[in-house]
Amino acid sequence: MKNSIKKLTSFQNARKTMLSHAYPVTNYICLPIVDALGCITSESLISPIDLPSFNSSAMDGYAIKSHDMKMNNLLKVCGDALAGKPFIGNWPNDSAISIMTGAQIPKSCEAVIKQEDVKIINNNIFINKPVILGQNIRLVGEDIKIGDVVIDKGVKLGITELSLIASLGIVSINVVRKLRVAIFSTGDELQYIGKKINFNNKLYDINRFAISLMLKKLGCEVIDFGIIKDNINDIRYVIKEADISSDIVITTGSLSVGKTDFMKTVLEEMGRIIFWKVAIKPGKPFAFGHLDKSWFIGLPGNSVSAIVTFYQLAQPFISKCQGQNYPSIFKKRYKVRTATNLKKSPGFIEFQRGYLVQSDKHEMQVCSTGVQNSHFFSSFTKANCFIILGCEQGNVKAGDWVEVEPFNMLLEK
Q1: Residues 6 or more apart in contact with residue 397 via CB below 8 angstroms
Q2: Nearest of 267, 234, 269, 230 to residue 250 by alpha carbon
Q3: Are residues 120 and 147 in the same domain?
Q4: Around 55, how many Cα atoms within 13 Å sit in the side-chain half-sphere?
Q5: Is residue 34 part of a domain?
Q6: Residues 6+ apart with CB under 8 A from 358
Q7: What's the total number of domains in the chain?
Q8: pLDDT tens across 248-292, in order?
């Protein structure tokens, strides 16, 4: 057993090797910002304007001149400054202008007094609190200046980033073109979701379904070749077609050493396997290599194994190929105590499913979702994190410290 483990690629080396081969897509497309959600910036975005673009009031209140900032001063209100409708006209000394939040600061205004800080007497205001020069005034360029880098290259565009871009008056942006990923599943036992099934010898193909959803969430263009039977010639044909049409080919199943596991043989014929089998549970039968025109990622057939290896190995590879800052995709790991016993054998790094809760002492702790077999997919619906147990680690007792990694956007609820 120890000798067979030594032949496996370590998890750390597997991820490092994949990332060393991940070259970002260089061609880009220009998209309207309304269509750019989830896309990756292909260049840094430079602000064409100052933000705010004019001096404005931070409060509802009264604009006054420095000449009139004295305590116990009584000032006549001589006009209004509204958002989108600035004050126009003569502004005499010993008077104030009523101003709304966001309204342009009138010329000669040196401060804005909150309406709560004055006493209103007829059409006059009585200043009863000290006034500081420049208070409650938002200055031009206070948030962003012309020429500032507002969004870096390689950033995934979410609602906040796109809203910021819109606030600068930008209507289109250059983004990395979508990565084209071909997927298919292998196995005579698999059936398409929605079709009638004989549960005695068939399974619904949830692997391809789940991987497709995750790829779309990552912003990829998915090319779905469906389910391929356990026939070596069929697998050869589809691998050839997938290689021509995509940047990455992802398969599930047919990577072990059974009589109908043809994938490794086909890959050795049509490309090069860089590594096969990783010291990880769940997910040992994982393969990475390249074909004539595309990269190849072979995921295990068991559903949990497929999800875990896609999350931990394929996701960072894909993110780097998209030009994204891939380390930032994972949430920070930290130590907590486990509330349950955890079963673990040395020799493999394990990514067990767990859920973080608050203990009676108001401390975070993690609980196992239960049995960690690689075909128990229901455990994912209960989990919100991975419990990461090191390669040489054995069984863990309740109360011991363990490392956890909360799910990122790919799996979080």
Answers
A1: 338, 341
A2: 267
A3: no
A4: 15
A5: no
A6: 364, 365
A7: 4
A8: 999 998 777 667 678 888 988 999 999 999 999 998 899 999 999
